[in-house]
Amino acid sequence: MSNRKLNVFLPLLFAVVLALGMFLGHKMPGSNNGGATVFFTKPNRGPLQEVMDLIKAKYVDSLNTDDLQQEAIEGLLTHLDPHSIYIPPSELQRVNEDMEGNFEGIGVEFNITADTVNVVSVLSGGPSETAGVQTGDKILKVNDSLVAGNSITPEKIRKLLRGPAGSTVNTIVLRQDKKITIPIKRGVIPLYSIDASYMAAPGVGYIKISKFSATTYDEFMKAIRQLEKQGMQKLVIDLRQNPGGYLDAATRIADELIDDQKLIVYTKGKDFPRTDYKTKRPGLFERGALAVLTDEGSASASEILAGAIQDWDRGTVIGRRTFGKGLVQEQYDLDNGGALRLTVARYYIPSGRSIQKPYGKGHDDYDDDIIERYHHGEMVNKDSIKITDTVLYKTAAGRPVYGGGGITPDIFIPFDTSRFTPTLTAIYTRNTFSNFAYQYYTTHREIFKSYTNAEAFTKNFQTTPELISDFKVYAKKDSIPGLDHLTARDETEIRTRLKAMLARQLYRTEGFYEAINAEDPMVKKALEIVSKEKGASQ
Fold first, then answer.
1. Inside any domain, residue 66
2. Could you report the per-residue pLDDT of 399-409, keeping only the tens digit for each?
3. Last residue of a domain, one of 156, 190, 224
4. Which of 325, 357, 499, 525 is catalytic?
5. Of these residues, 81, 137, 311, 369, which one is catalytic?
6. Residue 32 lies in a domain
């Protein structure tokens, strides 16, 4: 009976639904153009995209819309924090290579003097060394491109020399007035982030970290193991001028220095739930005396590492107040081949303090902060440090610390303003030290053959009066003023820097830091502090 009733009412039910559908279709947006957009309306493009589309379609003159879009994006980002940035397609590969810790090329370091490309050093075991390239060679031609002349730039050279691993680049070099053709098979070239690791004093290791890349943790572990084999029981970590990088690299290194189940850092943002990063396992160096060197160029991941060590009273932070970058960025790839690096959260170190300095007065004010510190006197006087966050935080041992502008060191070492006399400033800005060291090395190779490593060079090489005299003659050709009336401080700086640059010529950054640190007041203070402390690494 019920089935018969349903059969009677079904046609009527379909008719009602059909009529209701027709009525709703007539009333909904798009009904007057056939109803095609009832359920699939166009997404709202927004005024920014509308303006760009109108300019492309209607503007009186032809324009490079890529440049317009980049300027528009950069203009938009000026209203955000200073670390949200747009990376154009032309820059993205270089940025990624720097962070990934390698690139594909031939493995030489070069400089350009007198419109000539000079090979300053050749990577040991790299493609160029295998092919027979030598320090002192002058590159004349890369494939079909001449590379001598006033139009050559470092960027042009890099583009010519870099390429896919396994491909071949044909070069013509000048060696002692003889032209030589050298084909070089490109390979993967490491970009090291540990610039130096050596025994700075009996039982005391030194590690210089220049950035936190994808390879930094592995480099750090290798350095620690090598130093422990040489008897290291105490450690100095140099983070000066380290701009940061990958958070993971900093937290994994912190895990090797701080004992288990301790908070290293946490992140939190409006749409970014709190995430804690803690130590997880026994580390290689959890109990030895530790010092960390910082300055106004130490930022981001450097500040996280230094801050965690300070907050847990694990070691002594020595130097000057750090940069003050406590913002977390995530990188998003864009359809045009570029990327947006957008701030999504803030970092908070174990005491709960944020290390981010204020940026509410605009990007220019933020960028000028380091210069303002210098003018304010902070670089030479700890009492001149401005604390922008008045909230008092405490370390694990109850020591007072402050946030809102970087990590303030436990022991302050002033900036040496005497290094910027007119003579020294001219020498640095004209790259005279580096150019002279290269020229002197290539013309005096025999006298350097007796040094087996950077340690032997640092201990035994002397900057003789004859070497200083040769440098002055060279520097006068560079129009350096005041060379005949040097102060005692200028003389000392020139001797120290010349030795360091020659060490760099021989042993790259490892040699440079071992030589320059012998006279560095911050390193000397760190060695003094850790030497007073008792305890071994295990």
1. yes
2. 999 887 899 99
3. 190
4. 325
5. 311
6. no
| Chain length of the chain | 538
**Residue 40 pLDDT:** 47
Encoding tokens for residue 382? 């700890």
**By residue range, what is the domain housing residue 486?**
418-524
Work out the mean pLDDT of the chain and round it to a whole number.
Answer: 88
Query: Does the CA dihedral 344-345-347-353 come out positive or negative?
Result: positive
Q: State whether residue 85 is helix, strand or coil.
A: strand
**Which H or E run contains 499?**
helix 488-516
- The catalytic position among 300, 351, 354, 537 is 300
d(CA 320, CA 469): 36
Q: Is the pLDDT of residue 39 over 80?
A: no
What amino acid is encoded at 324 in this protein? G
The sign of the torsion formed by the CA atoms of 68, 70, 75, 79 equals positive
- How far CA 501 is from CA of 289, 489, 508, in Å, comes to 31, 18, 9
426 within 8 A of 494, measured Cβ to Cβ = no
Can 311 be counted among the known catalytic residues?
A: yes
Model pLDDT, residue 10: 54
Q: Does the annotation count 325 as an active-site position?
A: yes
Q: Which of 190, 212, 231 is the last residue of a domain?
A: 190
294 assigned to some structural domain = yes
Burial of 416 (0-12, 13-18, 19+ CB in 10 A): middle
Between 264 and 8, the higher pLDDT residue: 264
Average pLDDT of the residues in 327-352: 93
